[in-house]
Each structure stands twice: as structure tokens, then as C-alpha cells.
Amino acid sequence: MRLWTVAVALLAACSGESAPPVAVTPPPPPLVIREILAPSPLELDRQVRAAGLTEGIGALVPTTLPPAPPPEQKDRVAFRTGVVYAHSLLSGRTADKPALLANLTAVAEGMATLGASADLQKTMDTAIVHLRNDTSSREDFLVELDAAVAATDPATGWGSGDQTGPLLQAGAWLAGINLVAKAVVAKADPTAADALLRHPEIARYFLDYVHTGAGADKVGVFLDSVKSTLTTMESIAKKPRLDIADAAAVVEATDALLQLN
What we know:
The chain is mainly alpha-helical and 261 residues long.
């Protein structure tokens, strides 16, 4: 903004004429929602491996899809789509092709229900075709899928009229954290618990949406459960040090929400 103002003033001085005031429209402020986005499922898996849990979390992904909510329940559709998206990425390297195709088809259908753009739907369709025909490596496919979702800003919705905000990202993050916590419990590694489960700012980011943002006026058992789970996650993450009992508490809190959905 300051550079624009100086440039206009210099041009007026060089012309030797008294230029009328020039109204400079400042660029829109950056969206806060971009500054604290949850790590993608692939990033969570990298963090798990870096923390010494070398098996990763892909093997812990459920082999069945969560039940599909009615299409008019958009918040639940968004959350479930995020859960299945996370499971698709995390199991994508080793999953059987039919199971992975079923997951991806569910993600594509969820995005279509939310009104995702034609470009995003085309990207999803192309990714599914590549997987079905083995025309790209699994690794390339996962990066392509991850980038397709990451490029969409939840502040603007997935399509015209979509008001689900960051609930798809919330579903993906909580599904991933659920598996991370299960891996920590299985390994009985308190150091990994402290390193991997301390995300109070991410829990607060999603809580701000359901408490004071566009989701504040939404009510119902599902949203109440989302609030309760995120509040528990924030409370645990703010403890001075996390241990296996805390990891087990994360599993319990997130399992309850994921099973409800």
C-alpha cells in the first residue's frame, strides 16, 4: 500500500501539474484461514516417520468406508469427505486398487455434493482414471490428489452457496490425528506423543469456526460433538507434557466423533 502511494506522488511531481487525488484501492487482506491450515495427511505421515514410528500410519487406516450421511446434511458430508480423503492419502501407497478406488469415488461424490468447481471435479476424475489405468505411479497420484484439495480455500467454500467452511479439513485432520495417536499408543512412546499430538493452534482454528465463525449458528448433535472433540484436543495439547495416557485420550475423543459421523 505504501509503495503505491509513493509511486502516485512521484508521477504527479514530475509532470509539473497538480494532479487530482488518486483513489488507490488496497489489495484485500490475506485470509487468516490460510495461515493456520492443518498439516495434510501426507505431512502427518512424514512427521510420524520422522518421530521414529517408521511403519507410518497407513496400515492403521480402516478398510471400510464410514456411512454416507444424507446429501442435505452438508456439514456431515464435508466432514466425512475429509475423513475419506485422509484415509485415501494415508493408505494410497499400499491399498488394494478396488479399495482405493472406492475411497476416491466417495471423495469425488462428496465434493460434488458440496458443489465443488468443475475444475476440481475434473482433477478428481482424472486422478481416478490414472489410478484405474495405472498410468501414473502411486506416489505421483498421491501428490496430485493432495495438491488438488490444498489449492482450495475453505474460506470461499467448495462451490456456490457452500457454507461448510473448513469442516472437510477438520475431518481430514482429525482422521489423521486419530491414527497418529493409535500409532503412538501401539508403540508406547511418550516422546512421540509429546512431539506429534501437540496442536492447540489447529484445534483452536477449527473451534473458532464452530464457536464464533460461520458455524456459530449451526446446531445439532454432530456439530456439538465436533466442538466437544476439538475442545478436548485443545485441552490435551496445552498440557506441559504429553504421555501415552494423553494419546489414548485423543484416540477415545476422535474415535467417538468419527464413529458418530
